[in-house]
Amino acid sequence: MDYPQGLKYSREHEWVKVEGNIALVGITDHAQSELGDVVYVELPEVGSELEANSTFGVVESVKAVSDLFAPVTGTVTEVNQQLNDEPELVNSDPFEDGWMLRIEMSDTSEVDALLELDDYKAYIEEESG
Length: 129
What we know:
With 129 residues, the protein is an alpha+beta fold. It has helices at residues 29-35, 82-85, 89-92, 117-128; strands at residues 8-9, 14-19, 22-27, 38-42, 49-50, 55-61, 65-69, 74-79, 101-105. The chain has one domain (8-107, 116-124): CATH 2.40.50.100.
């Protein structure tokens, strides 16, 4: 699996790209491959307040329905509307076109609690047993 440099990762398999006080969020390549073909993505409204580790939406695939968890606390400033018509972008390009939302972070230090790439890869291996 290919992972871009400079991202942070949650134990719930979301990735975060920090752009100032904005967190660009999506699910990892590992998560989308475990889910299988994504057929529907439910995301919050712009302006929604999210708490770190709380549920912010749902991804439905042919295999499962999975909750999405906010990696940081803040306000949703943008949602990827393209996923309404093309949820499969989560599978084909999870780190670019398949991004899910932008969050204006209330506390940028929360990013420090997220995993670096090597730690995330070790976590996946540990989780897979």
